[in-house]
Amino acid sequence: MSRHAPVRMMSQTTGAFLLLESGLEYELARQLDREPNVVWLVGQPLLLEFKGGPRHTPDLLAEHADGRVVVWDARPVEKRDEKFERVAELTERACESVGWEYALFDSPDTTEQLNLFWLRNYRHAPGWPHLDLRRHLLRRAATPVSIGDVLGSDQGDGHLTAVMWHLLWTGELVIDISQRITPETLVTTSEATRV
C-alpha cells in the first residue's frame, strides 16, 4: 500500500468504501470502524491551506455519537519530522477553531493488529436468527467468562462461537485486545451494554 495507490476498505460504519492512502491509515480505519460510538468515517476529509504555509490533507475524520468530531493523521513516530510536526500543530489549531479534536495515530502493536485482523472476519452479524444467543452471551459475560468456556458450551453448530466473535468485533463484548487471544482470555460486557 503506497501513497500513490489508494486502498479501498469496506466500512461497517458507513456501509461504503473508504479510500485510504497507506497501510497505517488502514489500521487506524479498522480500529475506528470497530468502535460502537463512531457513527461516520471519511478518508482524506478536507484540504487545509495555511496562510503563507503548507497545505495539508488529514488522513481520516471520525464523527462520534456524542457529536464529537476527531480529525486523524496516521504517521509513525519515527517519521514525524519538523515539517510534519509544524503541519500537525497548524492542523490541531484549525480543528480547535471549529470545535473539533485532532489526534495522531502511531503504528499499532503487532498483537493488537493481529487480533483486530482476526475479529474483522466477524464484522457482519451472523445470517441466522441469533438474538437469543446474543442475549445469552451478554448475560453470561456480565461476570467475566473465559473464551474457552464459551467455546466449550457451543452446541457443535458454531453459532454461539460466531456470535461471540461478532460481539467482540462490535464491542458489545470486550477483551483486552492488546494481549494474545487464548482460551483463558476473559470476556466481559462493555460499559455501554451494561447500561
Task: Characterize this entry briefly.
36% of the residues lie in helices and 22% in strands. The protein contains seven helices and eleven strands. It has helices at residues 23-34, 82-97, 110-119, 131-140, 147-152, 159-170, 191-194, and strands spanning 7-10, 17-20, 38-43, 48-49, 55-56, 60-64, 69-74, 101-105, 145-146, 173-174, 186-189.
Summary keywords:
3-stranded antiparallel β-sheet, 195 residues, alpha+beta, 36% helix, Trna Endonuclease, Chain: A, domain 1, 11 strands, elongated, 4-stranded mixed β-sheet
Could you explain the architecture of this structure?
By secondary structure, the protein is an alpha+beta fold. The chain folds into two domains: 7-105, Trna Endonuclease, Chain: A, domain 1; 110-194, no CATH class. It has seven helices and eleven strands. The chain has helices spanning 23-34, 82-97, 110-119, 131-140, 147-152, 159-170, 191-194; strands at residues 7-10, 17-20, 38-43, 48-49, 55-56, 60-64, 69-74, 101-105, 145-146, 173-174, 186-189. The strands form four sheets. Strands 3-6-7-8 form a four-stranded mixed beta sheet. A three-stranded antiparallel beta sheet has the order 9-11-10. A two-stranded antiparallel ribbon has the order 1-2. It is elongated, with a radius of gyration of 19 Å. The relative contact order is 0.12. The mean pLDDT is 90.
